[in-house]
Amino acid sequence: MEDGLGAWFNENKTEQQLSSFGFRTSGGGAHQSKTMMLPEVESLLSSGTTSADSLKIAAIDDNVMGKSTANTRRLTYRHLCSLYGFNDQPPITKVMMGLWPLDREGHALFTLLVALARDPLLRDTAKVVLETPVGQALERPNFEDALSSAHPDRFSYKMVRSMAQNCASTWTHSGHLNGRAKKTRQRVSATPHATTLAALCATAAGYGGPAILGSVWMKALDLSPEQALDQMRRAESLGLARVRSAGDVTEISVRQPLSSTLGVSELEHV
C-alpha cells in the first residue's frame, strides 16, 4: 500500500472534483479531538430525518444524542458536520444516509468509509491497521509513529498521543480492532451495501474497472479483489451496481444505479 494521497486518490482527479464529492485531501480533522462517534451517528440518523435543517434540530433542540448540556450538543454536532458533512451534504453524505436504513449491519463500515474520506489524519493511520495480520496486537505507539511520520514537527507529543488514541478507538468501533489498552487486529465482514459505498469512493477518487476492486477503499473493508467482485455482484442483485466481467475485462458502475435507487442525482457528475 502506498503512503500519502496516491493510495487514496488518482492523480487524474483535480482538487475541485474531489472536494465536490465530499473528500478532504488535506488539513486536520475531527480526530484531533474526537473518534468517528459511531453512537452519535447512530442516534442522529435513527431519528429518520435527513435534511440539514432537521438534522440540526434533532441534534441540538431535540437532543436525540442524549447530551447533558446545550453547549455539548452544539459542539458534538459541529464535529459531526465536519466529519460527515451533515450541514452541506455533499454526494458522499447523501449516499451514506440513503444506504443507512437499508443495511443496519453496514453502519460501522459506512461511517468508517466516510470518516476516511473526510479526515486525512485517520487515513494516516490506515496502513498501520490494514497491513497488520489478523490476530496480531496493535498498541497506541504504533498509531503515534504513523502520525508523527506523516506530520513531522507539526503536533506536540501530547496532541499526537491524543490523536493516536482517537484513531485507535475509531478502528475499534469499525470492527478492525478488538480490546482496550492492547488491541488485536480482527477481520471485518463487509456487506454488499458497504462494498458499494467503497466502490463509489474509489470511482470518485478516479479509479475504474479492476482498479476499483484493488483500491485501498476495498482494502479498508478487508476485501481482496476477488472478494470485492463477489460482493459487487451481490450488490448488483440489490440494484446498487452494475457489473460486467468478460475475460480480463471488468466493468463496474455504481453511480447511475445508486442515483436511481437513492435519488442522489449529483452522482451523475461524479
Quickly describe the structure:
With 270 residues, this protein is mainly alpha-helical. The protein has helices at residues 15-21, 38-45, 52-61, 70-84, 91-99, 107-118, 120-124, 126-130, 140-150, 157-173, 192-204, 210-213, 216-219, 225-237, 255-262; strands at residues 137-138, 177-178, 183-185, 242-246, 249-253.
Molecular structure report:
The protein is mainly alpha-helical and 270 residues long. The protein contains 15 helices and five strands. It folds into two domains: 1-189, fold of a uncharacterized protein from magnetospirillum magneticum (Orthogonal Bundle); 192-269, Arc Repressor Mutant, subunit A (Orthogonal Bundle). The model is unreliable at 1-5 (pLDDT under 50).
Largest sheet: 3 strands, antiparallel
Strand proportion, as a percent range, falls in 5-15%
Question: How far from one another are the termini?
Answer: 25 Å
Average of the residue pLDDT scores: 94
Number of domains: 2
> What is the CATH architecture descriptor of the largest domain?
Orthogonal Bundle
Radius of gyration: 18 Å
CATH topology of the largest domain: fold of a uncharacterized protein from magnetospirillum magneticum
Q: What would you call the structural class?
A: mainly alpha
Count, helices: 15
**Strand tally, please?**
5
Shape: globular
Q: What strand line-up does the widest sheet have?
A: 1-3-2
State the share of residues found in helices, binned by percent.
40-55%
Query: Which series of helices and strands comes N to C?
Result: HHHHHHHHEHHEEHHHHEEH
Unreliable stretches, pLDDT < 50, 5 or more residues? 1-5
CATH C-level label of the largest domain: Mainly Alpha
Oligomeric category: single chain
